[in-house]
Sequence to fold (658 residues):
Amino acid sequence: MGRRSTGAVVGGDHTVTTTMRVLLVTPPMTQLNTPYPATAYLCGFLAQHAARLDLEVAQADPALELFLSLFSRRGVAELAARIAARAGKRKKSALEPAVAHFQAERERYAATVDAVVRFLQGKDPSLALRIAGREWLPEGPRFAAIDPALAMEPGGDPLAWAFGELGLQDRAKYVASLYIDDLADAIRLGEDPHFELSRYGEKLAASAARYDGLAAALAAPPTLVDEHLAAITRALLDRHRPDLLGLTVPFPGNVYGALRMAQTVRASSPATRIALGGGYVNTELRGLREPRLFDLVDFVTLDDGEAPMLALLDHLRDPSRPLLRTFVRDGGEVVLRTTDTLHDVPAAAAGTPTYAGLPLDRYLSVVELLNPMHRLWSDGRWNKITVAHGCYWKKCSFCDVTLDYIGRYDPVAADVLVDRIEAIVAETGQTGFHLVDEAAPPGGLRALAERLIARGVTITWWGNIRFEKTFTPALCALLARAGCVAVSGGLEVASDRLLALMKKGVTVEQVARVTRAFTDAGIMVHAYLMYGFPTETEQETIDSLERVRQLFEAGCLQSAFWHRFAATTHSPIGHRPDLFGIRLARPRDVTFAENELPFTDPTGVDHDRLGAGLRKALYNYMHGLGLDVDVRRWFDGGGKKVPAAKVPRDLVARALDG
Fold:
């Protein structure tokens, strides 16, 4: 590539003396409706130091660009050609149903995909009439999610409960999202098994003790998805000509895409230095010993990126300057370079996130699930803001409380937050905010609400909290007046014994009162639920479901989701499994990633069997169905009977009356 250097950053004893170009990107894949906030935060911070360091800082979202490239008329045509060439070598009956359907309807997909994407971008709302009519778009296996049993009457509209007669735009978004899911399945099953809409190659990277799986995938011939990503990467290099490329990998589903991009950069612009960081690195690569990773990247930074990035930029200009929490390869071995002379940037000094350079009008609102809280996550574009760094509680036994992103609590003053909010609204023209705290502190939320009201700033916001008694009806009402529309929080096991073992600091009765206070204030409540916690018995699981049923019945919850418990290496459980009655099976000779740990629970409960019933129950509760039936109903179809709940059926009602 004919690349003009502005002062090539090559490391060693070379010192950069001219303007340095920095490009920060989010690799595929992440959510489609809004930018992942890491690059916005880091760009906002570096902007404060651009003059001193002589920087040009830019950001891009190749995750979004990859979606838009694949989900286009050209992308559909290329996919159909690839599948046809492969399918010609085997019987048609051997095709996956999603792939066979796509091939049969490929001309309709090619004719409609660009219009559907425009509609989901909010650019053609009148198209809702055709989409919602369910005659225009091809409907594949994903449309089985539209359950006829939910119709109000035999042969009636199975979506009426969700959208009624007036929810035309929302109904169309849901139908269009199922259409997109069908296309994604065709890509995954017909061309690239690593591809999913919100993750790419996740299984290659999640808790991968060895690098071998990733190395093999990266050495394999590129798929259609890889080819599109390589073209996007080369275009970014031509446009920005970066001296330093920063790749943020928040999740395992970003790692493969990040390394595919790094491959392309190495081949097209070998002078560009590459730094890797983000949530995945911070949790899974803390013991990194794999030198092959550094064939593709030059630096791997840990924890908050602001201070390590400043140190790295200074180091690239003057190699005698120290690095901070940064892995490098030295003499064929991975070493961690750090210093005690540099410290993290206080939250108040981190600056205002900026979305400059990101194509905010090209993100898509999707409604894949009718769960109300999932709808908030995936529908509409939300600005991101943080009330405080870390968690003020930081005691939960299943949480990574030993890591910086949880353990270092650092709040931001309310007026500083409102200043940032006003700046972001002025930049984006949008007033929706997602508070991305681990658990937003009640005192901080009160102060924020008071300042928003006092300064006349109108926004709509939601975020994660702990269901603690500080959230009184009066505080919930104040938050609602300040624009809060939803909260999510961990009820987890809905068992007081297990909540105490978890060190959650709440009880089921307390959760009932707090969630009811939010609901009465008009704020939607979503509960994170967990099953399979160490020593959890089958009886406790059934009793937990009964408590959850009562919370829905009493109007305390509007949304919830069950997660299967996972033991993680940086949690108190990972450090002292003996205190929780389990035995860990740590992998040997970990040279790459480590996070989730297999374990043996002496209770011997078949939690996977119970999980299906738990999810089925929630699906119905969120639709207002089955709230009056015995919770055993959701499990009776699985063969072995489950015990009856021992929880009084008026437990939550008594707690609310009390």
Q: What stands out?
A: The longest strand covers residues 484-492. Confidence is low (pLDDT under 50) at residues 1-14. The first helix runs from residue 38 to 47. The chain has 26 helices and 21 strands.
